[in-house]
């Protein structure tokens, strides 16, 4: 056991996964290595056979403590209603709980005086960060964004210029568990942001509704929404097709920005740098982060379309015609559409159901840009709130080196 304890508390080590030298078409490849995070002093529990083979209760005669059903209902209702009252007027609202939105909220939550509400239309937050490209499991993160993974204590296989998490869900579940444990954060999942609050040319919050209500406005009578006022709104609604970039699309439809040109073709090296560099306050009161940045600035996309299509995806006239037939609603990372022409109903079903003829794709195979863009958006929000931040050098604490570099590179863009 002494040997095991010594191993668990030692410095990070690299372990070769294969004895033979790997190659691809005759080209030697560096062997994969595993970075093992050192155990925190005094926090490593003792390990024994009895601890791993027994439970703190008798499974043969297990019974729960009695409770009235009404108590369960009252506890859930009281706590949720109190959260709605608390966050009806808050500091920052993050719209969309994908990798960028979660990273932003996590960074913001480090300041206990900042109240953060995260709105996600899906029951399950995380966006496309549960899987890598083409529904594969691994998450690739280019250096130096791996330092954010070190902060979260997430293990990874290390290569020269990038690291690989064995399953993307490790990042998403870890950051959510750390974020939601903080007292100044509330996640409102299954809640849609239907519109923006705009006063005097400044975004001042979001218009909210239950996601299921937003999806069924056409099938039910008018169901009015609610509101959530905020000093700063961070839009992290994702990318691609009519369901993505809903925050900036709404800004265009109400005349606050001129255009949303959409993404350029794939160029991963250019794309990730551009997304971090161009993360900024796009209009007073609203910061854009993550892949939504690529939509508004025409930056290169993260990866090509992988699904089979009935028509050429690069034909912009088709996309424009498709958008003309839509009546968009801003819904927290999604654009719940109202199809009017019956001939398009089948296509709509394919999009919503993820069938092979989908015109939508999820996030690309590398996620470092989402993490760092989210962190940068958080510090932009702190700056807007007049609080210490990494962008003007007033932040006191541990600042990731890549965040400092991003701030230095983007000052002119953010002020433009």
From TrEMBL:
It comes from the Eukaryota. It is found in: Plastid, Chloroplast. InterPro entries: FAD/NAD-bd_sf (IPR036188), Sti35 (IPR027495), Thi4_fam (IPR002922). It is an enzyme of class 2 (transferase). The modification 2,3-didehydroalanine (Cys) is found at residue 222. Substrate binds at residues 100, 120-121, 128, 193, 224, 239, 291, 362-364. Keywords: Chloroplast, Iron, Metal-binding, NAD, Plastid, Thiamine biosynthesis, Transferase. The keyword DNA damage does not apply. This is Thiamine thiazole synthase, chloroplastic. GO terms for biological process: thiamine biosynthetic process; thiazole biosynthetic process. Its EC number is 2.4.2.60. Involved in biosynthesis of the thiamine precursor thiazole. Catalyzes the conversion of NAD and glycine to adenosine diphosphate 5-(2-hydroxyethyl)-4-methylthiazole-2-carboxylic acid (ADT), an adenylated thiazole intermediate. The reaction includes an iron-dependent sulfide transfer from a conserved cysteine residue of the protein to a thiazole intermediate. The enzyme can only undergo a single turnover, which suggests it is a suicide enzyme. May have additional roles in adaptation to various stress conditions and in DNA damage tolerance. The keyword Chloroplast applies. It catalyses: [ADP-thiazole synthase]-L-cysteine + glycine + NAD(+) = [ADP-thiazole synthase]-dehydroalanine + ADP-5-ethyl-4-methylthiazole-2-carboxylate + nicotinamide + 3 H2O + 2 H(+). The gene is THI1. Its main location: plastid. During the catalytic reaction, a sulfide is transferred from Cys-222 to a reaction intermediate, generating a dehydroalanine residue. PANTHER family: THIAMINE THIAZOLE SYNTHASE. Its cofactor is Fe cation. One of its GO terms (cellular component) is chloroplast stroma. Homooctamer. One of its GO terms (molecular function) is cysteine-dependent adenosine diphosphate thiazole synthase activity. Belongs to the THI4 family.
């Amino acid at each position: 056991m002494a040997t095991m304890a010594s191993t668990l508390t030692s410095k990070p080590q690299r372990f070769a996964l294969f004895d033979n030298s790997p190659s691809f078409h005759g080209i030697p490849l560096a062997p994969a290595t595993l970075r093992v995070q050192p155990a925190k002093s005094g926090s490593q529990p003792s390990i024994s056979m009895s601890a791993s083979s027994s439970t703190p209760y008798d499974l043969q005669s297990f019974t729960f403590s009695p409770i009235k059903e009404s108590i369960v209902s009252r506890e859930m209702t009281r706590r949720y209603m109190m959260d709605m009252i608390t966050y009806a007027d808050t500091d920052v609202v993050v719209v969309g709980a994908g990798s960028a939105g979660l990273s932003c909220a996590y960074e913001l939550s480090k300041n206990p005086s900042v109240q953060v509400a995260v709105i996600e239309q899906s029951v399950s937050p995380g966006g496309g960060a549960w899987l890598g490209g083409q529904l594969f499991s691994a998450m690739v993160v280019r250096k130096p964004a791996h330092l954010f993974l070190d902060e979260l204590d997430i293990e990874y296989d290390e290569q020269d210029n990038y690291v690989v998490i064995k399953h993307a869900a490790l990042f998403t579940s870890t950051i959510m568990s750390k974020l939601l444990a903080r007292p100044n954060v509330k996640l409102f999942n299954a809640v849609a942001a239907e519109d923006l609050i705009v006063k005097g040319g400044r975004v001042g919050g979001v218009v909210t509704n239950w996601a299921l209500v937003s999806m069924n406005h056409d099938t039910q009578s008018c169901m009015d929404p609610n509101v959530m006022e905020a000093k700063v709104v961070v839009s992290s609604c994702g990318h691609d097709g009519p369901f993505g970039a809903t925050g900036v699309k709404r800004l265009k439809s109400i005349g606050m920005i001129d255009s949303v040109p959409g993404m350029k073709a794939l160029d991963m090296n250019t794309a990730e740098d551009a997304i971090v560099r161009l993360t900024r306050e796009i209009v007073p009161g609203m910061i854009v982060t993550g892949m939504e940045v690529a939509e508004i600035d025409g930056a290169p996309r993260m990866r090509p379309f992988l699904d089979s299509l009935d028509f050429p995806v690069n034909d912009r006239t088709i996309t424009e015609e498709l958008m003309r037939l839509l009546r968009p609603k801003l819904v927290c990372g999604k654009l719940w559409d109202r199809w009017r022409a019956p001939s398009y109903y089948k296509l709509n079903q394919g999009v919503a159901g993820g069938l092979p003829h989908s015109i939508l794709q999820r996030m690309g195979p590398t996620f470092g840009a989402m993490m760092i863009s989210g962190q940068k958006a958080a510090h932009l929000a702190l700056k807007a709130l007049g609080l210490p931040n990494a962008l003007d050098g007033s932040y006191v604490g541990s600042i990731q080196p890549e965040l400092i570099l991003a701030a230095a590179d983007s000052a002119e863009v953010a002020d433009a």
